[in-house]
Amino acid sequence: MRKFWKVVRRTLLLLGLTLVLLCLGAALLTYIYEDDIKTMAIKQVNYNLNAKVIIKTSDISLTFFSSFPNTGIRFENFKILELKPGSDSVLAQVGVLNFEFSPFNLINKSYHISRILIKDAVVHIRVDKEGIPNYLILKPDTVKIKNKENIPLDIKLKHIRLKNVRLTYDDLQTNKHLDVQINNSIFAGSFTDAQYSLDANADFVAESLIIGQQKFLSHKEISFDASLNIDNLKKKYSIEHFKLKLEKSVFSANGYVSKQGTGYMTDLSLKGEDANIQTILSLLPGNISTSFKDYQSKGQVSFSGKIKGLSDKGISPLINFNFSIVNGTIQDSKHLLGLQTVNLAGEYTNGNSHDLESSSIHIERFSAKLNGREVTARFTMDNFNDPLVDMNLRSEINLKDLKNFATIPGIDSLAGDIALDASFKGKISDLKQYNTINKTKLSGTLTLRKVSVRPSIQQYSYKNMDGYFETNGNDLIISNFAGFIGRTDFKINGQFKNLASFLFLPNQKLEATTTLESHVIDIDDFIFKSTGKTDNNKTVTRHFDLPAFMAFNFSLKADKIIFAKFEAENVTGQIHTSNKSAYLQNVQMHTFGGTVSLDGNIVDAGQNIFKTTAHINLKQVDVKQGFYELGNFGQNYFTDKYIKGKMDASVDYSSNWYKDLSVDAASIVCMADITIYDGEIHNFPQFMAIGKYLKVKSLDDIYFSEYANRLYIRNSRVEIPKMDIKSSAMNMSLAGTHTFDNVMDYKLKINMSQLLFGNRKNYEDEFGEIEVDQNGGMNVFLTMTGPVSNYKIKYDTKSSIKNVGKGLEQEKAEIDKIFKSNSPNKKEGENLNKASNEYEFSNEKPDDKGTNVDEEQNDGVPPKKKVHTEDSARKNAFDVFKKKLKNH
Question: CB under 8 Å to 449, separation ≥6 — which residues?
């Protein structure tokens, strides 16, 4: 036993000494021949390369230990410039390039390169817009040179290794880009033989692949293991074994590719196993795959297919693939629910002609469940050049489940159930033209049950909606579509036309003829409101607009319509919408305690403005209620707390409104013929002030049986023509203007007979008992001017009241022009919105025939007559009154 171990020790010692001697010998040979090998290597580079190589001599070395048991020629830290005149761009920058050969080659000085190592390199391959590549750096006559000269360096590669190599490829002509980080790859084979077997394995990261405008393979970890038979004589490459792993999915292939003429003959079988949906989706273009980046999937995904035939310029091989998903799940990580029990089977082929026109994709079966409710679909598309689609979708789902499965932009919440059965068949191109869209067929039904939707940008939600919708193509029939919008309830029946064109063509209108019934319509529910916050408070912006696509005809019937304080009952009428405008016809309602009928237009005039025109008739409306519900027309001068009575009116109105529902006051033009019955005015400050001025308390409460007049509004002011008021206090006439800024310019005529004797209780204490002459008539003229907060009452002199009122008839004619046919009828250069400031008062008394006779005015009193004794009391009273006026 001891002899055995003694022999072993001697043998090991001998082998060790032999190995050391060999190493020392190889190292010595390396040292001896290093300069010769460097010179030979540089010479070989110059023989074989056209490109410029930038390297220091000190970075070329002969190695032994790092490539043991071989010897190596190592090039370090060098650059190869691309072969393009005038370009200094780098084709490759290499940290280490090592050529290995047997150390015995140093003895016979014949070097056979068998292994190559490329490490820490960056290679940028490029093809410019003219199709010229930058990587053709080998001299075309390299082979001839080698045949004519005895060059001691030969390449008989059996092993190539790439480690930490970044490879980029840009083809500017075809707009392609590839960026790959090769971590480690090994290729083994007799590369210099005409026929050999190649074994390869690689581990790399595909950073990006861009073809045209589409991005694929964004940072995907890929590895493969392959065995191929290479036949350079026949130019045929057979795949014996190929397995590629993309993340967690595995793909395999077998078959061959051979050169045939200028193209390649292919016969490949491809198969995918244990793939997942996420991996498959990641292979799609970036603009599609990013839409699914948050979705996770489980289940068995598989596909198999063949690529067979010639591939050449203008010729494509047959491509045929089958794919399926079995018991899969799809769920977004941001949501609570996902699709369960996903099953799908389909087929893709490029058809008999191997081109886009004969290509098709058929998904004959798709089914899934969303929270236990089934969704099924079928989809086929033929002719990728002019796609013909035939599809069907059926589902009964809860909308809350849908919201918990996917993000729906602009929707905060969903609830309720829908049942959908929809089909489409036709060419996509036919959907793009109005004259061919009828060749397509869209059909189906939709049922809503207790559906509620809350949009993100609206104040109110749509609640408890039920209804049935059915389409036969271009028309949509609506049956009992009912629900709530805020506080408004609705029920719609009717027909929508031009549905397919509206859905698929740009700038198309959706036409509808429907009935709209409601118990309560709150106009505020249809006004868009956005809330913005400042540092100290919150502001609400209102906005009203009509969609451009709406071309609806509504037959309206509402039990009640409300807007702020306004309320109307039993509302009926016709409403037409078109071009973002609304037209109202024969609208009838009960409001203000009476009846109102109107016809009007709300026309989108552009520049964020609606132009409104209306003709309104009011019968027996309660004036006080009307003032209150209409917010006293936006003024606080003459409000509902001062007036009572019933009113008939015929009103023509025109104005411009901004879409935030503010009115352009300067644009308001209105003509109103009004009659007030059984009227009362109580504690109106301006009348009370006149009474105080005249020492008449009875103007605090005025009662009149009937008052009729025509009022005008324009130029931001109300214009009141001569207005005769016959009241319980006294008869008076009034005319003038009142601006929207509450600046008054009134002229008043007071009957002195009634002033002094009609209510003589106010004067008996001062003048004693008065006897009234009923045929006498004296008028006093006053003015009331200035802002409401600081107005002045004065005696009106002769010069200020002369010819007051001239031009009133002309003004009436001008207003009539504005409302004729709901639009101005202007003459060229004519201003229909000009004002008239003249009003006419006169001293009048009935003649024997009941007509009015004008008389000369003299300081507002009749011409002097002979004073009789019985008139002395009147004269004394009037003298006292004149003194009081002059004192003011």
Answer: 416, 417, 418, 419, 466
